[in-house]
Amino acid sequence: MAKIEVKHVARIEGHAGIEVEIERRKVKQVKVNIPEGPRLFETLVLGKTPEEAVSIVPRICAICSVSHRLASITALERAFEIKVPIATKLLRDLMHYGEMIESHSLHIFLLALPDYLGYPNAIAMTDKYTDQVLRGLRLKKFGNRIMEITSARYTHGENPNIGGFYRWPSRNELLEIKNEAERLLADGIETVELMRNLHYPTSMEEGLMFMCLNPLTETYGFTGDSVLISNGEERPVDDYLKLTNERVVAHSTAKRCRYNGKPYIVGPLARMNLLGERLHGKAAEAFKRCYSLTWVRNPLYANQARAIEILFCLEDIPKLIDKLLTTTPPEIKEPTKKSGKAAGAVEAPRGTLYHYYEVARGYVRNANFVIPTTQNLDAIERHIQVAAENLLKTGEINKNEIELLLEMVVRSYDPCVSCSAHFVNLRIKTNDNK
Amino acid sequence: MRENTEITSKPLVGFYNFSGCSGCLLTILNCEDDLLDIFAAGEVVSFLMANRGNIEKNLDIAFIDGSVTTKDQQEFLLDLRSRTKKLVALGTCACYGGLQAMETGKSSFASRYQRVYGKTGPTIVQAFESKPLDAFVKVDYYQPGCPIDGKQFLFTYSRLVRDLPADPPLAKVPVCTECKWHENECLLLKDKLCLGPITAAGCNARCPSNNTGCVGCFGPADEQNLTSEINLLKSKKFPLETIERKLRIFGGTRFAAILGQLKKH
After folding, report:
1. Does residue A387 contact residue A426 with C-beta atoms inside 8 Å?
2. Which of A124, A125, A225, B265 is exposed most, by the fewest CB atoms within 10 A?
3. Which of these ranges, A114-118, A125-129, A425-429, B91-95, has the smallest mean pLDDT?
4. What gap in Å lies between CA B171 and CA B151, rounded to an integer?
């Protein structure tokens, strides 16, 4: 009996494992094991005030902490029927862009690129690819700086809450962000070119369904009240339970999702497939250069989608700040209502993130969170299965190559295992009694 | 290259993550200006979040983010301790059990677990109530924060790789110390609930500097007077229930014990 085993999927957030059982050169079963230690966040917010809940939920995951905060604020403001001024929305968008730039550049340069260039980590690439590594760090630092100015810290900043921001950034801080975005635009374009020119393996290709939020304006964006589905449907965020259909499986502390009984994909690839045509300017040019129908079948192209999203943010930030500078800084508005229930969603870097709250007499009574990685896990398993089947068909099994490719498939989704419960070990088991 | 330097070989360093949000390890990756130096000053042999092909062997320094919530983590921690010279608890989860320990001694873990996963939950882990690292092993240094502060990490790291003592300088004193350096107007004087007087400094007094009360995310300061804080907040008409709830959120196992004592009186 042969056994191929990779214990831990590296360069992802949290811990996860992959198990592929093979019998007579056929894939018998694929499991993405998630033994992450549960923290039971849905229960931790019970009995808390809504403002306390907003402070607790970002701790589900550091890398998407801003998205968790925004999703909770969105849901709770809907529950309390609070309408915030346009200035508040713009500042939230700016903060959201900061997270996108940070998270995507972390993924591209530190987590994904080493696979494509043949290194164990990004630091080891520095001698030969100095410019690329430094460019990645520059972009990443800029994303963090935006979050520091808007949210008060790189991670888990407490400045934004229901009704607005406790402190409004100064004019100089906003101008600093604007100038830096303009300065880094060239880095954004270079990053797209870097990702476009990599070699992308094809053995996992299979077309799956996509979902993302439909931005309220007819532009590209990361917020909305309804969900676009690649089968042509559009459903309100309130239908999130019917869209995601969470279920518990034995091999994972992360739950699993399907729509109409089928796996689906959320995240940058879904957004580009569904909204890419809405891009403008340099990001639109980049999209035209990069996009092909392969993007519907190959999850690895999410890396190019991330690069285009970084460029979109860099290009949009100066316009956004120009608008912000003409507005009067609004005071934070405390909710007048004490009870209500609603769902709210935002696009986290990894995909659609749903939060749901029921509040009665000032305290949270029920909560639910549906996480992008949870939604992607069935699609990840499916793409691993297709890859394993195709690689077995092509003949000799090269253990190291298969392991690397399957890990690359997992990594391309940029799974955030802390979010989904947390954790992935990659274990390939072959029970091949030839 | 190294003949004329004092350091004959680089210390072997590992970075690990248990149950948490990975924010403390992310904070290390967020030291963009110093990242190359961090990897140059130590021989990083294990850092799953950033490196493929990690090696588990004897270490000079292990940094651990997250609390212990499963049997597998508990066993791995014991193994790690047995082969590590200096073990550093990174962040409020590793130091005090974290947010996920806020219900300790208050409600049953089993009922919370069932509420999230239903009656037939996952079988892949044996999970239990969140515990800090020192519930199982000796911890050499505590670096609190949710998440830790990058500059404080660089202080600890640069001292540890030279085998120098590395207690974070600000964890003894409360947030008020840093808040005063910023010359902020005290929020408690404006009758706003602030946990600054009892919470470890090191965050640069971020929340009070943003007009919002300290939420206590760095956990208890060494030099703090909890009874005095509680009496102060009570005198400002905050109900004990509210005070206790706020203290529990990040106070983890430490405040849970103290709050139990207080109720008896």
Report:
1. no
2. B265
3. A425-429
4. 13
Using a CB-CB cut-off of 8 Å, the residues of chain A touching B20 are: 39, 418
| Residue range B146-185, pLDDT digits in tens | 999 999 999 999 999 999 999 888 888 999 999 999 999 9
Q: Could you report the per-residue pLDDT of A15-46, keeping only the tens digit for each?
A: 888 888 888 778 888 888 887 888 888 899 99
- Per CB-CB distance under 8 Å, the chain B contacts of A122 are 50
Of A38, A122, A123, the CB nearest to B69: A38
Strands B43-47 and B68-70: unpaired
Q: Among A69-83, A387-401, B44-58, name the one with the lowest average pLDDT.
A: A387-401
H/E segment holding residue B84: strand B84-90
Select from B52, B65, B106, B194 the residue whose CB has the most chain A CBs within 10 Å, as the one to mutate to test that interface.
Answer: B52
Could you identify the residue written with the tokens 């000053």?
B41
Which chain A residues are closer than 8 Å to B122 by Cβ? 34, 248-253
* Nearest to B171, CA basis, from B156, B157, B186: B156
The model carries a pTM of 0.94
Beta-sheet strand order (sheet of A363-370)? A340-348, A351-360, A363-370
Residues 173-192 of B with CB under 8 A from A: none
pLDDT range class, residue A9, cuts 50, 70, 90? confident
CB of B211 within 8 Å of a chain A CB? The answer is yes
Query: Hey, is the C-beta of B147 within 8 angstroms of any chain A C-beta?
Result: yes
Question: Nearest 5°: CA angle at A212, between A257 and A354?
Answer: 55
Give the pLDDT confidence of B210-225 residue by residue, as tens digits.
999 999 999 999 888 8
Structure tokens belonging to residue A403? 């392991």
What's the CA gap between A307 and A268, in Å, rounded?
Answer: 9
